[in-house]
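Q: Hi! Curious about what Chromosome partitioning protein looks like structurally. Here's the sequence.
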Amino acid sequence: MPVISFANAKGGAGKTTAALLLATELAHQGYRVAIIDCDPQHWITQWAEISGPVRNLQVISEVSVASLHCHLREMATQVDFFIIDLAGAKDALVTTAIGLSDHVMIPVQGSAMDAKGAAQILDLLALMKDKANLDIPHSVVLTRVTSMVTTKALITIKGLLAARGVNVLNTPIGERNAFKELFEVGGTLHSLDAAKVSNLDKAKENAGAFAQEVMRLMPTHIIRSPRLRVFPFGRNAA
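A: Let's find out. The predicted structure is below.
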């Protein structure tokens, strides 16, 4: 039962989009997924409210430090993956969620501000390892990558992070209309109308490759076989 959190101390780095794409792709594969919405903007909760029931997926909102422990413990037998969307901050809830995670995904756009926000999370992970002997696996995922971002630029960013010993996913998340559309109309990439959304196939391919790469990072012994179940959406109070 992996717990995967998405963290960057700066807001707007693409955490929510990355978390939602991973969660919906895993649910589409038959895994039971719970998204824990710790972002005070509650974008995923709002997405859930307009989506209606989606197979294998539920959203938990209004989370506190104390209730996070409870959710993970009480739902451990009901969920195959926990996906935690964190605030663009470095507060007690972010620190607690990271400490409870099996893997921390750090979304980064090609900007200095995003890099600084990512560095704060990397410093927090290093502190946990040094002071609490918590060696938490983590990776950077490049987000909102457009055709204007050259391959050379991506290689440079990866090189800088690799110099710090940071794993960078080979699959960047592109800047795609389909990803934005999810937050406008709800549902998943697999329920969108290809006649109304441009390059939907490319978006599905991108999200699928991202999910596959994340799955390869998970220890096989903590991944359960996928099962099918329909979860109702709605706000689950802390």
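A: A fun detail: The chain has one domain: 3-222.
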